[in-house]
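Subgroup meeting minutes
Present: P.N., E.W., G.H.
Scribe: E.W.

1. P.N. recapped why we're keeping a running log of single-chain structure predictions: easier to compare across weeks, and new members can see raw inputs and outputs side by side.
2. G.H. added today's entry (201 aa).
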Amino acid sequence: MYQPSDYLLFRETNERTCSCSRLETALKRASKQAVQYEIRMKDLEARLSESLSNFRAIDGLLQESYSGIQLNTRRAERALQTQVPHINSELDESMDVLSGLAETLPTIQAQVDEIRVVYDSGREKAQSLMADLAWLNTEFYERWRCIIFTSTSPVSWRWKASMRFLFALSFMIGSYLFWLLLSGAYRAHRHRLVWGERLMS
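Output recorded in log:
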C-alpha cells in the first residue's frame, strides 16, 4: 500500500536526479566554455607574441631611423657652420671676378674684332699673293692666251685692251700678208709662170 514516506523518498530521489542532470549540463557547458576560452587565450597569446615581435622590429627600425636622423642633423649643422660660409665667400669672389670680366669684356671684344680684321686682311693678301705667284709661274703663251681670250686674268683692263688691240692688229696684218701671198700665187698660176728650173723673167 502506498505510504507518504515512499512519496517523499521518491520525490527526494527525483529532485536529486534532476539536480544532478542539471549539474552535469552546467559542468558540460562550463567545460566547453573553458575549452573555448583556452583556445581563445592561445590564439590571443600567439597574436600577442607576433605583435610583440613586430613591435620589436618596428622599434629597431625606429631606433635606426632616429639615429640616422640625428647623424644627418649633425652633418647638416656642421655643413651649415663650415661649408655655407665657405660657399658664400666663393660666391662673392666669383661675383667680383664676373664683374671684372664684365668691365674688361668690351675691350677684349674690340681687340678680338681688330685681330679678326687683321687676320682677314692678311688672309686676303696671302691669297692674292698666291694667285699672283701662280700667275707668274705660268708660261708666256698661257698668260697671253688667258689675257686675250678670257676675262679671268689678274691684269688691269688697260693691259688687256692693249694686248687685244695688238693681237687684232697682228691678226689683220697676217691676214693681209696671207691674202697677198694667195693672190700672187693665183696670178702666177693664171699667167702660166713656171716655177722651179726656169724662173720668172
